[in-house]
């Protein structure tokens, strides 16, 4: 008899089931928002800016993550198109989510007049925190796990609690909790980002690039343990290169099974290599060419389009007029009454003067 699995449905509202996966992803987004708002206060950025960024970014991330996943599984989804939107059953790719959110964020940030590098720096810890929490959605759905291991490895060597060990029992076989490895890697990275962002040597854009590099290093090695990797058929030299870079892990762990029908190169591993190389190159190039002139700790300046500024000022003026409409009417009425009183006093003084002249 297999250990009891967690129910992926937390509760139901009428006939509508609410999945733990959605609750966990929602919690991840909320934590990320709060972190961005808190850091944004140091630079004078209003919370509404990050709230709007989240409202635009989350749908974009979900769409990007799903499209990325479906693209690599098109042989299946082309025959089951009705399942393309069923993200509550899992099947989203983190790199697709980051790409979708980044494209949306760049458009929104530029429209608001901020430097893209400065804002994505502020958001970097939020992204990593969101990934750290979001991986537990994979835990509930029993997905994104690694290759087979002995139960004793989970209990005696990793000293994992029963609820994790039991959930890693997939149809009678225990597996690497790769969701946990990645979550812990993200937690360490988050602590490092919190420390580094207070250092004066850090240039604008480097916190975000550092986050991407850190996450991709961990993802490259953890991905090799998984058995559900998205993959494609690449040239032999590329597959050999990826395998060679991952080979130090073979001293401790066996590589996760990769279905030859999917391909011979794990897409996430190749993407991780690409991001690491590009991230390091950007840091070096931006410093040597002087593009990284601002430091992370420098004030963030908003360059507002005059038309946008005029529109926002007008809107603020209209709001102020509406809120003060009644007091303004009262002031005008009081002013008219004062003018009438002054005229009455003037008429009275002139009449008194005329009478005095007649008496004389």
TrEMBL record:
One record GO biological process: lipoprotein biosynthetic process
E.C. designation(s): 2.5.1.145
GO MF annotations, alphabetized: phosphatidylglycerol-prolipoprotein diacylglyceryl transferase activity
Keyword DNA-binding: no
Transmembrane segments: 20-37, 49-72, 92-109, 204-222, 267-285
Nucleotide-binding recorded as keyword: no
InterPro entries (UniProt xref): Lgt
Topology versus the membrane: Multi-pass membrane protein
Biased composition (Basic and acidic residues): 323-360
Major place of residence: membrane
Pathway annotation from the record: Protein modification; lipoprotein biosynthesis (diacylglyceryl transfer)
Keywords carried by this UniProt record: Cell membrane, Lipoprotein, Membrane, Transferase, Transmembrane, Transmembrane helix
Stretches the record annotates as Disordered: 311-360
Superkingdom of source: Bacteria
Localization of this protein: Cell membrane
One annotated Gene Ontology cellular component of this protein: plasma membrane
Binding residues for a 1,2-diacyl-sn-glycero-3-phospho-(1'-sn-glycerol): 135
UniProt feature, compositional bias: Low complexity: 311-321
Family under the similarity heading: Belongs to the Lgt family.
Primary role: Catalyzes the transfer of the diacylglyceryl group from phosphatidylglycerol to the sulfhydryl group of the N-terminal cysteine of a prolipoprotein, the first step in the formation of mature lipoproteins.
Protein name: Phosphatidylglycerol--prolipoprotein diacylglyceryl transferase
Lineage: Bacteria, Bacillati, Bacillota, Bacilli, Bacillales
Gene from which this protein is expressed: lgt
């Amino acid at each position: 008899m297999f250990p009891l699995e967690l129910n992926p449905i937390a509760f139901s509202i009428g006939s509508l089931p609410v999945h733990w996966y959605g609750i966990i992803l929602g919690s991840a987004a909320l934590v990320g928002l709060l972190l961005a708002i808190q850091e944004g206060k140091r630079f004078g950025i209003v919370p509404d800016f990050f709230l709007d960024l989240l409202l635009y970014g989350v749908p974009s991330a979900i769409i990007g993550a799903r499209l990325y996943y479906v693209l690599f599984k098109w042989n299946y989804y082309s025959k089951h198109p009705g399942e393309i939107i069923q993200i509550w059953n899992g099947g989203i790719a983190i790199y697709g989510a980051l790409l979708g959110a980044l494209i949306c964020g760049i458009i929104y940030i530029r429209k608001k007049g901020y430097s893209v590098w400065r804002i994505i720096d502020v958001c970097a810890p939020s992204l990593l925190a969101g990934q750290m929490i979001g991986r537990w959605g994979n835990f509930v759905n029993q997905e994104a796990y690694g290759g087979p291991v002995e139960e004793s490895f989970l209990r005696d060597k990793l000293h994992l609690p029963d609820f994790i060990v039991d959930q890693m029992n997939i149809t009678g076989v225990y597996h690497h909790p790769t969701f946990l490895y990645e979550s812990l890697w993200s937690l360490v990275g988050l602590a490092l980002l919190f420390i580094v962002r207070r250092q004066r040597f850090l240039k604008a854009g480097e916190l975000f690039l550092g986050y991407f590099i850190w996450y991709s290093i961990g993802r490259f090695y953890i991905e090799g343990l998984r058995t559900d990797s998205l993959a494609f058929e690449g040239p032999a030299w590329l597959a050999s290169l990826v395998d060679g870079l991952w080979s130090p892990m073979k001293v401790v762990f066996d590589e996760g099974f990769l279905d030859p029908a999917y391909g011979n190169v794990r897409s996430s591993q190749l993407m991780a290599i690409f991001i690491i190389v590009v991230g390091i190159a950007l840091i070096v190039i931006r410093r040597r060419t002087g593009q990284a002139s601002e430091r992370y700790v420098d004030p963030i300046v908003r360059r507002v389009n005059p038309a946008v500024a005029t529109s926002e000022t007008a809107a603020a003026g209209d709001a102020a007029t509406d809120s003060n409409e009644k007091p303004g009417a009262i002031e005008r009425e009081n002013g008219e009454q004062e003018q009438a009183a002054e005229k009455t006093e003037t008429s009275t003084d002139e009449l008194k003067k005329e009478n005095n002249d007649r008496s004389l």
